[in-house]
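Appendix C reproduces, verbatim, an entry submitted by the partner laboratory led by Prof. M.T., so that reviewers can inspect both the input and the predicted structure.
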Amino acid sequence: MQGTTLSLKQKALEEAKRMLVITAYLSVLFSVFELHRLGVLRAQHLPYSYRVGFSLINALILAKVILIADALHAGKRLTRATMLVTVSLKSGLFAMILICFNTVEDVLVGLFHGKTLAESLPGGAGGGLEGQLIVGVTIFVVLIPFFAFRELRRTIGEDAFDDLVFRRKTH
């Protein structure tokens, strides 16, 4: 029983680390997007307030979506392809998953606040299909470095990757 408990604790700790890394990455990117939106709208003399909690809350939610999709082995078959293909396809697949989740989230929040289904549909990046396409392409591009690092870490091994990225060179 002791070995099982230790293994469960190790798995929980590893999952928490993964959640923290993904959340941190997405939070930084969402904060940059919010700052960009703030700059664009202010340049047009349109009112806009920076949503401080938005970046962190969305990063937490979407990090959990990524972990669940990982647990369901989304994109697992892609690991036999070249790294370029794997990273591109995983970025595309996860961008679609995140867009779908974001759309469902926006609809549920809108319905909760008494809006109709049509009023609840996301209006990001100008609204409509064009807006969703812009958000999708943006998320796709943002996920490329994330999956590139993950694939590199998987390919060369966790210890070698951590030595390469996080440890100082002595020479």
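The chain is about 80% helix and 0% strand. Additional entries are available on request from the coordinating office.
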